[in-house]
Design goal:
CATH superfamily of the largest domain: ATPase, nucleotide binding domain
CATH topology of the largest domain: Nucleotidyltransferase, domain 5
Radius of gyration: 19 Å
Order of helices and strands: EEEHEHEHEEEHHEHEH
Strand order of the largest sheet: 3-2-1-4-5
Structural class: alpha/beta
CATH class of the largest domain: Alpha Beta
Strand content: 15-25%
Helix content: 25-40%
Number of domains: 2
Number of helices: 7
Distance between the termini: 14 Å
Number of strands: 10
CATH architecture of the largest domain: 2-Layer Sandwich
Amino acid sequence: MLLTIDVGNTNTVLGIFDESDLLRSWRVKTDPRSTADELWLQYKALVEGYEITGLAICSTVPATLRELRHMIDDYFAEIRVTIVEPGIKTGVPLLVDNPKEIGADRIVNTLAAHTLYGGPAIVVDFGTSTNLDVVSPKGEFLGGALAPGIEISVDALAARAAQLRKVELVKPKNVIGKNTVEALQSGTIFGFAGQVDGLVDRITAELLETYSEKPHVIATGGLAPLIFGVAETIDHYEPDLTLIGLRLIHERNA
């Protein structure tokens, strides 16, 4: 079975695949201070009972990736490991000024989105930052837009405004909040939905200048459920998009 690990700045998502079937997934906190042995103990407890025969990893946290390499040497030396980095076959041409700047998760999401939905496509990844990644009809990565994430924005507002505080992130009943909590929830949920809709509309307009069809818009990431169903431009919600992309890249490098 294949263990996939997507290390993000805030959370790490793990998944177990039996061929193309995702059997189970987990979401845990990312701690850049964790050592290789601590990572092994945490992951071992989650995947106990599964026979791991392959491992696929992408990471946006250099410190954690370094420890993962040590973990692989100590505990996964006998299985095939794929780490998404330069030299790995992804099948995703990067049509940007500096391909080395593109995070591994954005490449993985591009491959998964094009495989599942075709192109053109826009992947909206709601994580520590909100990433909008644009995919051509041929599966090329065309670039995109990056914005501060939902939780970062809420934390910054609570830290800088004396009379405001962090609130539970849920969709309020009305846009016009009748108290501070509802007003903050409205501004956060409807505000970010409006931001996504505005960016998607502008990206779509640029794509239509080159391609004849509108893009599929796919939401993913830990905070996607907050905005999916509120943002009017999002067509699909795929919570396991990055894990699926890791499986596909692992298969390409067999």
